[in-house]
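Archive entry: two folds, one per protein. Generate the first.
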Amino acid sequence: MNIHEYQAKALLAQYGVGIPRGGVAETPAEATVIAQRLGGEIWAIKAQIHAGGRGKAGGVKLAKTPEEAGEIAKAMLGSRLITHQTSLEGKEVHKVYVEEGLGIEREYYLGIVLDRSLEMPVIMASRQGGVDIEEVAKNSPNEIIKVAVDPMIGFRPFHGRKLAFALGLVKEQVGLFVDFCTSLFRLYVQKDAEIVEINPLVFTSCKRFVALDAKISFDNNALYRHPEIVAMRDLSEEESSEIEAGEYNLNYVKLQGNVGCMVNGAGLAMATMDIIKHEGGEPANFLDVGGGAKPETVAKGFEIILKDPNVKAIFVNIFGGIVRCDRVANGILEAAKIVHVSVPVVVRLDGTNAKEAKEILEQASIPNIFAAPSLEGGAKKAVELACQGGAS
């Protein structure tokens, strides 16, 4: 689960992490009032959307008067911001964050993420702050310093000092930096975060480290422990079909292709998308219907997939382990009665009673449902049908 920058900064402040003063505005008048209240000579007006790259897309601008802050907010609010992390449609801006300007001496990058290969949280830092960290990792990987933190001992001052020395911080900065990292890591652990990213982390003319920007995302599986985090969820920032799928315990992620995917098991779903790509197609979604694959579940899966107008064919790839393939086949036929399936469906069933399942589908003789002989054959057929615009 993602949250907005202003929400992330409120959390940081609770843990003693330095942030600039600011306020959230939903109208131009509110933006003007906030700038007046903050005082100073310059303010940053930031569009609040769940996507990076806002600055390059015009979503972060500076105002030199409170009135100008209101004018900038007026132009941002209601607009659609398109960044490298949004779809081509972009995201509509409903709120802006008005923040005081700071005297900045140096910018850095600081982030915490789980390294699954090490099975440990890793703190990453770089002297190249304020730019796309992905570009730094690609073009200057040596500029990124990584320190793994053994969860058995947690974050210790020596972790922070190692980062500080690698960043070239002077003696007077090291203690401040270690304190900053300590607070940040405590938030990461206690709030079950997946990613905590400060870009840029700035050292100001007032001789303190401040999170000028903040991105935090959380482990969905741990949200039951954090009702205060759940309360921050902004449904307007999420894909409506993904929200609906979640209500039916379906794991669905919308993508940009034209081959809909319905699979049981996350690993098999990833493999299915890979083989669709291998056959020259583009998956339209990730959809894991789980081990049960009941008719009602399959029907809801079809319904959600077909809401995407880009879908020209659907590839159903089910491995019958927990559930028998013949039951799945009957479930697909029942689902086809419940939901009008307007595009061809290629079905590959393997595992328990796979032979019986294939016979059930073939005997049903439904024009737009095809039984696939294999995973490769099914993916190839689905891609071909999608390229034909769904014509069978």
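Generate the second and append.
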Amino acid sequence: MYSLLLAIIYVAFISLGLPDSLVGAGWPVMHQSLGVPVAFAGILSMIIAFGTIVSSLASERITRRFSVGVVTAVSVGMTAAALVGFSLSDSFWMLCLWAIPFGLGAGAVDAALNNYVALHYAARHMNWLHACWGLGASISPFIMGYTLSSGMGWSSAYLIVGIIQAVLTFALLLSIPLWGKVNPIVPSGAAAADPAADGDQDVDEPAGRGAGHVPLMQALRIPGVMFILTAFFAYCALESTAILWASTYLVADRGVAPATAAAFGALFLLGITAGRFLAGFVADRVGDRLMIRGGFATVGLGIVLLAVPLPTDVLALAGLVLAGLGCAPIYPAIIHSTPVNFGRRNSQAIIGIQMAAAYTGSTFAPPLFGVVSAWVGMWIFPLFLAVLVVLGVLMSERLNRLVTRRALVSR
């Protein structure tokens, strides 16, 4: 039962990644077909992001009421319906309309699944599951490319992915009885050795006593929550800014050939995916704290190599790949450590807020960098990323000190 449900969750994470790259991959053709400016992609992405933030913040209440299995199945079903709706749209306003259930479904399932895995499965699975998300996000551009090259049109790509999501919805509906039969994990290895791990019940008490639901403002007042939200915001802002602007920086500031820059920009994403697969083999032994520290340190080293003003581009290109590898364990480790840091009873509420912080960072940081770079120059790209790394490290370390101190006091 444990393994069967885990297999379903793995497939679900691949499926979660599939729609995320479709708009970007198809938009050069879509905007011409719909007769709208290329900049309208920003409107569409903002609608989706707003929906994900809203549903992430509401995920704790919804999941407590309907169960994680039901929320996951319904959310994937909403995403499937939205993708089919995209495939049937012949005007931009219709895409905007279908973007609403797309965003709402994506945010709810992301928060619900991440919390369930954090509570019920070891750290290695969190890393491998997020690697599966990257695998799905890497596959969908090929689906779009195939439908465009074969003359089927961009709408067929959305229909294909929508059908895949619909099949997954059916499988998830059948799996609903399994979700309540997998026992939560007990921290072991590095997690058990962490002083914070023993403080789980104490952390539970303040927010959990007297009611099952943890209101948003109550969750935000839990000591340390603002630290991890800021760290998560910084990481996701770093990742999304690098994904969007790295190739442009290499071409505009370092004089790298556009084809080479594009290839290494893709390697940054592949580095994240491959790094998560590799991180899964050591995550249980190393522990979430060291995975986060090591990840930020590796990203920092990559940024230094990216910024070194040498005649050769080898170090800059290697630095970008190294930064991708460093990014790999940070997101999964932050999510997986949430029940230990804040208590199992509070984890769904806090992970929902973390998802909202993640979407906020990934939505607003890239355009902010665009404004900053237009003002001072593209050379500021490594410095912008370095500031986000420092912010992420400072906030995560402040949380570590707080959780350790709280655990020692409770003994």
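Annotation attached to the second fold: The mean pLDDT is 84. The two ends are 36 Å apart (CA to CA).
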